[in-house]
Amino acid sequence: MSAEVHTVAVIGAGKIGELVLSGLLRSGWPADRLLATARRPARAEELAARYGVRVVDNLTAVDEAEVLAVAVKPQDAAALLDEIGPKVPAGKLLVSLCAGLPSSFFSRRLPEGTPVVRVMTNTPALVDQAMTAISAGAHATGEHLALAEEMFKPLGATIRVPETQQDAVTALSGSGPAYFYLLVEAMTDAGILLGLPRQVAHDLIVQTAIGSAVMLRDSGEHPVKLREAVTSPAGTTISAIRELENHGVRAALLAALEAARDRARELATQAE
């Protein structure tokens, strides 16, 4: 399957749908091979003006596109499938970006044998640094997974995981950027408390975060080893780490990610 010959429709081009649409265009995907749908006319006009793609109704998208990238909110997915499900030919690929919803949710509402690929990406797609996890539904083949990878590789990194791991992926990388932004926000406030101007504190933290992430990615070292390299005996870093441990930061992260995983499961139950 060559990506170049496929027309992709982004159904429900909200925040995540727009990330996919803009990323495909940046990667060189032809605008005439992209369609989008939006619930509000004003949003449709905005997308057409911004990206130069055709914005159509859902049934036109189903009729004309070979790949349907569904990016509606999880609670809206059932109503969408009631509308388009009977019109989807069994050979058409559906790519779900709906957080928490298993591929079986779609398969039950589509013609028997329709391939579904479940995808979880994240907002750093805006700067081509997304982490996208891709899983095959019951009828999706390696060819379908490869096509999904072609769509999302331009947005950053991709990884294939069993679908049973997707709720954990949602908790870890789907929601993950928010955890880092919260940490940067807190560290900026700490810098201000210590007497630094806000912009200086922000710049120090952001570049430190970027540098640390690149070291983690490129060095191949375990994060414990990298942390130990910064942690001198009786030094400033170990004093700070002691306070983080005293305040249960590690335990809080474990609990937070479990909560995010559990909420992903709840979304699937509520959507049914």
pLDDT < 50 stretches: none
Q: How many H/I helical runs?
A: 12
Largest sheet: number of strands, sense, barrel closure: 8 strands, mixed
Which strand-content bin applies to the residues? 5-15%
Helix/strand order: EHEHEHEHEHEEHEHHHHHH
What is the rounded distance between the termini? 33 Å
**What is the tally of beta strands?**
8
Name the helicity range: 40-55%
Shape label: elongated
* Order of strands across the main sheet: 3-2-1-4-5-6-7-8
Gyration radius (Cα, Å) is 21 Å
Report the mean per-residue pLDDT as an integer.
93
Structural class: alpha/beta
Which properties best describe this structure?
12 helices; elongated; 272 residues; eight-stranded mixed β-sheet; 53% helix; alpha/beta
Tell me what the structure shows:
By secondary structure, the protein is an alpha/beta fold. The chain has twelve helices and eight strands. The protein has an eight-stranded mixed beta sheet, with helices on both faces. Helix 2 links the parallel strand 2 and strand 3. The longest helix has 23 residues, at about 250-270.
